[in-house]
Amino acid sequence: MSARQRFFECLHRSSPALLEAALWISAEHDKTLEPEAWLRTFKDLQLRVSYGLPMLPVSELAQPLLRRMVDLGFAQDDFLPLRPQAALLHRVLHTQRGQPLALALIALELAHGLEIPLVGVNFPGHFLLRVPGADHLLDPCGGRRLYPNDCRELLQRQYGPNMQLSAEHLLTATPVQMLQRLSRNLRQLHLTHDDHIAALIDAERVLELGDAKASDYMARASLYQRLDCPNAERFDLEHALLLSEDPIQRLRLTERLGHLPPNSVVH
Asked: Which residues are CB-neighbours of 21 under 8 A, at least 6 positions away?
């Protein structure tokens, strides 16, 4: 099976293998990578984390787990501009520096192995974690507790004072949503570093995961434009036009389609 096929096989298990799936994403970008070897490395990390946890009920161990990760050197990557290695899980395991989502995926896998209840929260701009039933969220970058006012402040710090906190921002993320977000992050990071082929690999995965947005088709269309593939660019712009509900965006898409050459057919 290809790395992409192995990725989806991890997702389709009765209990989706999040970390392994993320490592198969890494394998798409590094043909020499062996996810099984990194999973063995992860088992060693899990033992080191476990040895440092306090004797508390498992329902109270999520925050100590995150603090234990800090003790072992894990932290948010503050290198600017942010590099793809901040979202590639094998690199994050190696450097111990990553985006909030990458750190969260490691924490979720550790929690799963140690039977600590913990779920992901698809918070805009900064992925968060939550113990089911708790009245607060947890920052995967250190374990700070975030109550509603903290979440509101975090949201407005990133999107401006007019951005209002809503219940939708606090929903539990499914495995597909987490890996689709990871793929979007990688698509953007590879694009920022002018690696258009790598960004295209991530853009295709975003669409294959389903429930793609108009912006996802537009992102891949822009990559096809840079790679001088007008037929593929037209295909994605047409799909974006079908999905878009923004009249201004629809007008711009129509204008952009009008500037493309007509489809060419190869026999």
From this structure: 7, 10, 11, 175, 179
Beta strands in 44-198 (DSSP E): 75-76, 97-98, 119-121, 128-130, 137-138, 145-146
Q: Cβ contacts of residue 167 below 8 Å, gap of 6+?
A: none
> Was domain 175-258 assigned CATH 1.25.40.10?
yes
Going by the DSSP 8-state scheme, the letter that residue 31 receives in this structure is T
Per-residue pLDDT of the chain (267 residues), as tens digits, is 999 999 999 999 999 999 999 999 999 999 999 999 999 999 999 999 999 999 999 999 999 999 999 999 999 999 888 999 999 999 999 999 999 999 999 999 999 999 999 999 999 999 999 999 999 999 999 999 999 999 999 999 999 999 999 999 999 999 999 999 999 999 999 999 999 999 999 999 999 999 999 999 999 999 999 999 999 999 999 999 999 999 999 999 999 999 998 876 544
- Strand pairing report for 97-98 and 75-76: parallel
- Token readout for 80 is 């600017």
Domain coordinates in residue numbering, the chain: 3-170, 175-258
